Structure formats: C-alpha cells, structure tokens
Fold each of these.
Amino acid sequence: MPRKAQDYDDIPGTFVFDAERSREGYGINMFCMSLMKDENRKAFKANEAGYLKKFKLTPEQADAILKRDYNRMLELGGNIYFTAKLGATDGHSFRHLAAVMTGSTQEDYAKMMLDGGRSVEGNRSRSGRDKPAGKSKSKSKPSSKARSKRG
Amino acid sequence: MARITAGVASSHVPAIGAAIDNKQTEEPYWKRVFSGFEKSKEWMAKAKPDVAIVVYNDHASAFSVEIVPTFALGCAAEFPPADEGWGPRPVPTVKGHPELASHIAQSVILDEFDLTICNKMEVDHGLTVPMNLLFGSPEEWPCPVIPLAVNVVLYPPPTAHRCYMLGKAIRKAVESYPEDLNVVIFGTGGMSHQISGPRAGLINSKFDKAFLDNLSKDPKKLTRISHLEFMREAGAEGIEMVMWLIMRGALDDQVNEVYRFYTVPASNTAVGHIILENKRKAAGKRPAGKIAKIAKIAKIKRAAARRKIDIRRG
C-alpha cells in the first residue's frame, strides 16, 4: 500500500517519523535499541548481517543498515534518536551523522553550523510555497480551522 | 499552599552534557554557550526552589518504540540517569517528590489530562542537561524534581495549545497542595534545529527570537502554531518547543522576563534560554512587613463589608 500523503511531505529533505513510519520501521528501531547493550554492540560488530536476522526487517531495511544509509533508514521508518545509536556504535556523534545525511563533508557541515546553520529561506517547501509562516494559503486554512475549534 | 513562582526554558542539547562530562566547558566553542548561563545559575541560587517540575522529552532511553506515552509524570522517589549508549552521565541521581507528583497526577487527570504515571523511570540528557545549566554540577541536586516526559519523537506530539492548557492544569494542581512550597517549572528542548535527513542543520533565528518575545509577552499567540509550521520553520526536531508552552501555561498571564540568552550553534541546535517570574510571589516569600500590611488592609475591608451588611439589615 502506498504511503498516505501528508501535509508535511511538502517539507523538503525531511522524513517525519509518524505512525505509519513507526509501524513500518519497528524492526529498525528495535534493532537500534538493542545496541544500548555492550554485548549486543559486540555481537553486531562481529557479524552484522547475521545479527540483523534476529529482527523483523525487510531486505531494503537490512540493506540500508548494512550500508549505513541513514536517510534511507529514516525513509523506511527509522527514527534519528534510534539510528543515532547505530552511529554511536560506529563511534559517531549526532553532528557527524547530520553531516553524512546532508551529503557534506564534516568540515563543511561544521562551518555551516558556525555560520548560523542552514537557512530556512528556500528550504520551506517542495511545492514552491516558500513563504514565511502565516502568509501562504496552504497554512492559513488549517490554522484558522484550529482557532475556531479551540474557541 | 504550594505555588509556582517562576519558569525557566532551556535547550537540552546532548553535546552540552558531553562538554560538561568531558570538561570542555572552557574551550572557546563551549564557553560561548556556558557563559550565557552564568547569570541563570546566580538567579537559581537565589530563587531556591523547594521543588522543580522539569518538562522534557526522552530520547529513546526510558521509552523505546514499544511504549510511547504522550505525557508521562514521574511519581517515583528517585530517577537514575539513563545509560544512553555511553554509560550513564556522571550526574547525581534525581530525587523525586512523590507526594506532590501524585497530587498533580490526581488533579490533572480529573481536569481531563490523561497522564501516564511512572513509578519507575530513568532520565536522560533531556532532563539532566538543563539541570546542569541552572544548578551547575553539585554532588547532589539541590531540590527534588518532578519529571514530566512529553512525546515529541513520534509524530504527532501534543499540540502547542494542549501543552499550554496542561500547564494551566498543573498550576491549579500545585496551588491546591497544602504545604508551602516554592515551585519552579522548566520547559526544555529546542530551539530551532533539525538533526535528521538532508535538511539537517536548519536554524531559524528569526522564528526563535519571535518565539522568545511571544513566550514572554503573548504566549497565546504561540498556542496557535501548527505542527506543520513548527517543522517547516524550526526544523523537524524543533517541534519540541511545544514543551516550553507547558511551562508558560503554568505561569501568570503577565510575567516579568528576568533573563534571556540565545546563541547558535551548539552542535546542530540553536540554544535558547529564558527566565520568567510571576509578578505575584509565593506567600511565604513576601517580606514580613508587607504581609502585615496586606493583612491589615484585608481586615479593614472585611470590617467595611460587615458594616455594609449591617446597614442593609438595619
């Protein structure tokens, strides 16, 4: 079944960890949780593909884990706070993983952050409604609805 | 009675905790962050809360994907620091306040906020980092803490409006607790940041600064921010700022902004911090002379009211 379209799918470069992804990615996240224990980290490192057999993973999910394709893991239902445990097992920090997911070198990413981070300008919307909050048509509708609901 | 006298908001970036634990706070990168909390520690030393309620989120430490409570209140006597994959942080065990916590639970559930009660829970950097920033690194934490863990990991988190209203219910609960307690409430997380996907690194200082302004002056405006707007403007993980609104809802409508600090970055995140005081202080904290004066005025008013009644009767 194809993924149900959501308003936040319009945000570029973002995989929102919602109920549907959580359901699909349960195995990825439970695998990542298992890495909280040192003995499991050792077992995984000793035989990665073999260790993954203990979890309910699709071939695509197992492949993304083995290849350390962090964006693909998120797309297939992983959550960053969980996949970061895989990163930690490899000795990497959140910032290291962030750089990897953005396709930058560690140096370039660190510099971007020191310079104030990635600008929101040009990064709000895939569909081109790239205007600040409250001005785009797509947003005024749900918010006014929410207002009336809340009285 | 117990009363919430002040609210504190602060980011809870894990790298800040790591910098403390690895003694890197004097390095220029980190000094810029930590220097912003020097005045806050002084303020906290004077505020001397009897209890702190800390609103935070767990990061796959106490809760995995097996159980995801939207609001989980810590009612235990103590909360050990969680092992987040590198061993537990070298911080003291967090002592709870089970009596006030269970009183709050009972009160807010009857006010229709269906909390999960946690009588056993470990706490991660989401709670301990802001405590370090405000209390420093003592041998023991100076006051008991009531943790309130909010789900902001699995979408959707509770709405900004819901969080604000929970804050109001918590305030009501605290004020119906008979013991005289000075309570400070923390809202943690944020500010703008995204640590997942190709858009990671997003920072929106304009959004953050407006958020701080409104938190202080017009919090109701913030309760209308949709989840889509939070994620679009402040990053997928920036949505955790809804937790600041629980803190704000627990305060008076009008507050005094005592202090504010903002810097970019700490790791992937914009660090924001604000201290808001209720104008009305705890009864026990009023200077003795002022209390006597208030009591005298009340006595005169009561006497005048009685006279009025007498006149009408006569």
Amino acid sequence: MALDEHAIPTFPTHQEVAQDVLERYRVVDQRYWRWVSVLTLLFVAGIVGFILRLNDGFGDEARSNWGYLVATLSFLLSTFLAMPILSAGLRLAKANWRRPFTRINENMAITGLLIYLMLIPALLALPDTEGRLSIWFEFPHWMAFKGANLMVWGTLVLIGLSLLWLVALPDLAAVRDHVPNSRRARVTRFLSLGWTGSLRQWRVLHSGALLFGAFFLLLYPTTQTLMQSDFQAGLLPGIKDAIAPATAIINALQGAVALTLVVMYVMRRFGGYERYFGIDQFWSLSKPLLAFSLLWFYFWWASFITFWYGRQPGESELLKLLILDSYRNPLMISFFLNFIGPLVALVWNPVRKSIWGPTLVASGILVGGLINHIRWYVSAFSVTDPGQHVLSPIPPGQLPTASDALIVVGGISGCILLFMLISKLIPVISIWEVGEGLHLVKVRKFFGRYVVVIAKSH
Amino acid sequence: MYYRRTLTEAQINQQLLGTVLTTPLWWVIILSCLAIVLAGAVSAVGFMVNQGLGVTGLRQPVFWGFFITNFVFWVGISHAGVMISAILRLSQAEWRRPMVRAAETMTVFSLMASLVMPLIHAGRPWRIFYWVFPYDWARGIWPDVRSPLVWDPIAITTYLISSMLFVYTALIPDMAIIRDRSTGWRKSVYGALSLGWHGNPRQWKLQGIAGILLSALILPVFVSVHSIVSWDFGVSLVPSWHVTVFAPYFVIGAVHSGVSAVVTLMVVMRKLYKLENFIWEEHIDALARLLIVVATAWMFLFWLDLIFALWLKEEQELTVWQLRMFEPPWSWLFLIFFMSSYVIPVPLWMFRRVRRSFTMMLWTSLLVNVGMFLERFIIIVPALMRKGPMTFDFATYRPSPIEITIIGGTIALVASFLLVFSKFFPLIPLWEEKEGQLLIDSVRVGNVDVPALVKEH
C-alpha cells in the first residue's frame, strides 16, 4: 500500500485473497515437512537434555542446573507468548496495517501449551518461600507461588488459545467449505463450530476479540510480574527492584515485535507471501521496534542508576553479579544487540523503510534478548543461599553445559514446531481480516498523485 | 476522528481568529481575578523572603513540602504537550488537531511555573545563582554535576526551550495569516515573527519536516525530564524514595495528569471561546480512551512500588507506608488520592456516554489532577516525616497559608499566561484545521459511507 507518485496503487479483491490463501493451505510443500522433521528432532533433543537434568533432581544443591531452563522459559514467554499482545493491542488501536500479520501473532498462542509444560519443572526447582524474599510473604508454598503461578499462567494460555480460536472461526469455516475432504478438513469442520457468518456471529466475534484481547493485555503484565519476582528477585538476596517486571514487559514487547518481523521475513522469503508482507508492514513495525529499543535502555538505566547511587551493601553486590562482574559480558552483548544496534540502524529512514533493515535488527534483538534472559535467571539460580541478607559470595558466570544447550534449542524449536503445525490447521493469513481491510481502502487522486484512503469504522 | 462539519477557510479564519481580533468582557473579568490572586501570591513570596522560610510549614527534617510537590506537579502537567502534539503527530492520530497548540502552550507555561518553584523554595532565591552557575566564586565549591538537583534545571530548561521552539514553529503560518489581516505596529510585529512566511510549497515542506523532527527529538527530552525529577528522590536513601520504578512511575503519572489537564482545558476553551465547531465529542472520547490506558499503566506501576516497598520488610519503609495508608490525616489523603486518580474516573470512562459528555469529562479530569497533586504530596512528605530511624526524630508537616497562597498563585500564573496567549495567537491552529479538512474522505461499504482519511506519508 505504498504511495508512489507515478503509479496507481492496486489491491487484490477479497475473493482473490481467499483463493490464494486457501490454495496455499491446500498444498503442503515438501520443504515444510523437511523443516517439521528437523524441528521435531531438535525438540526431541531438548527433551533428552531435560531428562539428563532430571537425573540431578530439584534439591537446593541442584538449583543451578535449572537456570537455563528457566531462562528459556522466560525468553519464550517474552517472545512467542507475547505476540498475541501485538494482535490485541493493534486491534484495539484499529491499525489497518496489522491485518496481514495478525494471524501470525494469534497462532503463536499455541506455544503457550509447551511454555506451560516448561513452567512445571521451573516451579519445582524453586525453594520454599520460608526464609527468603517473596511477594508471598512465607505463605504456604503450594498455595502461594506454585498454585498461583499455575493458575495465572494457565489462564493466560487459555485466554490466548480462546482468542486464537475465536478469531480463526471464519477462516476455519472457509477451509471447511472450500478444501476437499481430508483429515484437516474434518478437524476444521469440528473447530469451526457451525460458523455461517450471520450478523450476530460477526458481532459476537468482534466483541469477543476485543474482550479476550483486553484480558490478555491485562493478564500478561501479571504473569511477567510473577516470573520476575518468583524466579529472579526471590532468589537474589537484598534485591529490591520494583521496575524489574516493567522492564520484562518492555523487553517482551520488543521481543514480540522482533519475532513478528523475523517470521514475516521468513514467510516472505521462503513461503512466497510477498504480496501480504510488504514495505508497509515492515516500516510500520520498525517504529515501535525503535521505540521499544530506546525503552529497553531507559528501564535498564532507571534500575542501574538507583542501585549505583544507593551504594548499599546489598545493591553493590547485585551490581557486581548482574552488571559489573560475573555477567558483564552477556550484558554488553545484549546492550549492543537490544539498544545500540537498533538505535544506530533504525534511526535512519532508509533502513526503517526496507525489508532487510528491520529484519536484521530484529534478529539481533532476539539473540540479545535470549542472552539477557540468561543473565537474569542463570545468575539468580546460581545463588546458593537466597535467604542471606547480602549476597555473598558472588557466584561466577555460569556457562551452559550440553544439556542446557539442548534445553534452550529444544524449547525454541518446540515453539516454532507448534507454530508450523497450527499454521497448517488455521490459515496463517487471516482471510476475513485482510478482506475486511480491503473493503475499507480505496485509491483516489489527491493534488496530482494517487493516494490511498483508509476508513476506520466505529 | 473525522470532521462531520465542513467549514470553509474563511469560516475557519473568522471563528478561530475571533479571540485574537476581539476582546470579550469575560476575558477582562477573568484576567482581573487572576491578577488579584497573582498579586496575593507575589505578596506572599515577598513576605516569605523578608521573614524567612519559618513562615512556611517546613521544619526539620521535612524540608520539602508543598513547594516541591507543586514543582513536581507542574512538571507533570507539562508532559501533556509532547504526549498530545509530538506522539500523536508521529502516530498520525487525526484527532489531535484542535488540541495541539493548547497542549503545547500549557506545557511551556507549566514549565515556567515549575521553574519558579525551586526559586521560591530556596528562601533566598539569589543564592541559587551561586549554586548552579558553573564557577566556584572563590569558595572552591563547584556545582556537583553528579547530583540530580543540578540535572533538573538543565533538563527542564532544555524541555522549555524545545517546547517553545515547537510552539513557535507551528505558529508561523498562523502568524502570517494575522499579519495579513493586521495594520500598524501589529502588522510589523506579526510580520517579523512570521519570518516572511508566504505559504509556498517549499515553506510547507520545511514546516512539515521541522514538525516531524522536533516531535522525534523532543521525545527523549520528554522522558528524561520527569525521570530526572524522579531521581531527585530515587537516588537518595530516604525510606520509600529509593525505588527503581520511580522514573517510569513519575513519567506515566505525568502523562496521566497532563492529558487530564488537556481535557480540562479543552472543555473550558470550548465553552469560553465557543469552539463547538472544532472541539467535538469524538475528541474528548479519544482523550478518555488514551487516559484509560495511561491510568491503568500508572496503576500497575503504583502496585509495583507498593509490593516491592513491602518486599524487603525493612522497618523504616514499613513505617512510612503505615503512616501513608493507615494514620490520619494521611490515610484520608491516601484514600482521596487513590479514589480520585483511578477508582472513580477510570470506571466512569469505560462508559461511552461519560466519555462523550463534556461536563463529566471536565469533573473527572479535575478530580484526576486533585488526586495526582495529592499523590506527589503523599510520596514526598510522609517519607521525610519518618526519615530518621528513631521516634524522637519523627516530625509533622502542615502547609501554611503562605504556601497555599503561593500554590494558588502558580495556578493563576499558568491560567493568566494562557489567557494572554489567546489574545495574541489562536489557541487552535488554523492551518492544522484546514489541512484536516483536505484529508477527509469516505469509503462506501455496502450501503454505508464510512469516514476515512487520506493516508499521510
């Protein structure tokens, strides 16, 4: 939908989009199955790594073994499971440019199933709340952090899946009606819940999408607060970092935008979806990516400067652990990938207004994000006595073992695998949303050139 | 937001320049009343300078009271300008047009009011010169650049200068219109100020680029100003102040109070200046939706502050919070703050009828700012009252009539500035309104014409 002084912008019709998407849905490329096989192998390798770790158990002595699993859990929460936020938030803001990629964001809600499973061993690795800092204030541990976490995370995953199912109903019905008899068609027939596209059904869908989206938006910060307070702050003696959950949320928003860009690029490059993921989508997402990168630094700095000026004994030890000493190198890497690199690159309009620019920056952000999560959680899980008043001794940086590497790779592969599988059940382009958007645009002449006019219904 | 009433250029000129070209009686009456309040405030300042800070309620260890609360409050109000004009311009929100200038000028005048407060608070204002000027004046003491108290004036003056530039750049086309409709000395003055503006394509292009660049460049300043003000508290070791979340908490609180102040200003402007053709229900509806998001984010950060305050179970921290929440009169103030800032307005804003009612939005926005003033008061004073670990160090604070008069004077100052500004410049940008009219369109969907806009690039 880019403006061009010399050419008249053209758009496909709703019918053309439906035919194209359903045709891609019908045909499953051999490359797809190759990638599914590779990802399945990597996921299985991750399970092997997890089983190897299981041998050491969940006692206090073995807590440091689970740091990388928890870091992976947090990374997945802050990237894959944060993507529905984009869909919900941009839908509330009525951004028209979101329509081609909104289904990618919603489909990622399926990764919540794997992430929820990973939460269980992470909770088992945590010590009792007795004698250490906790927002549960030594409340009985099963009721408190384990039960509450399972409930909150579970609700988040459930709302994400409900949102996905609801907004996919029209497209599931389209598949049901237009794709010949196959196993997939039988499943979509069941999932489409008899959708006929009546006015009442559309009203319920629109209201439900906004409602589920709003609930997801409200519950996600709660989930991140629990993640930060239970899995990081609760294990670091003397820490009082109120901004940490907010920092995690901003990092998650950055991660979600970055992952959306990378997925769009991959689909464009290898899936042939160029007509859906154009300059408009990459350019529009590059601006919030720049904003979140600046906020990444701002939230980190707000925390750092308070500790630095305080110079309290507890704070100084934590600075040495997280920033100045043990995990200085991971911080430097993520500082560059999550802040300096995006700032230097995205401040230039030609870079923002390209396909490769935002994608390259986004890739760096994802790598930097993973390293940052490793810094947060591996450091916390390597503390031997969380009940101390001041951290002593300061644990050294902990490199990953082979099992840790397998867990990290397996977790990420598992999420990508789930996304690929669900995308063969629910079309990865939202036919009805793109079609709706096409009804709301027209082209007209405006002072000697052709421009796009976009309507926003209320 | 889309115009439903199409106005000609002549109508826009006539209606928006009415306040500049004529002087209504209500303007003179209100300005006179404000001048009386200002005179009272100036007298109070003079009395205080003459008699000393002892005429205020400030006593050891509570050396920051109403004056600093007011300082933080006005810095907060100033955040409306960048929020409305810069951020909404960059995100191409069409509904910003009638509010941008009023929000930006309110920013400039709020910053002036906030800068006045530390000068008054010093007691002997002339000594500040020795403190901030970068020279040791044979005392061997240089300004401490590691102190947030030195960053404060730097940040605020940077924000003030950039906001003034922002207002001025956007004013140029309108000043040219007034120049072309004036005679005598007014024509000369507006002519000089409009810098030879003739509205040719090159000038419009440069104007647009300047607007976008200034919007982008002022954003880091906008975030840094209130963050630096928050670090006046955050980098100290006063219980309940030494909190990492203060920076974004203060910034989002500033946006909350600033945008609420814009709502108040819009409703009052619409009534006094008869701007019904320009300020509609859709505008305050959009502001209310923005406020719901901002207020909810603020509430989240407030809860983080509270939870992590109790986290370490430090006795002094718990003492401060106990004073704030459970000991009268602070407990009453806390309740009023909590109800006014979030519990009452936000649920009301969930209802479309409330969002589109000018009366309801006026009262809820005023309530928010009462609550946000109390919020700053509750952050600052109780912490100082319980600063020492020993109970014999505990203190009380009650603002004196002198302080209350001076605070009222700052409100009158900002209101006077806005009134005087409206006498010389239109409060709604003429060129923005005309540009908005050009971008209106509609798209036929079935039997319905859906309002649409030409997409800007």
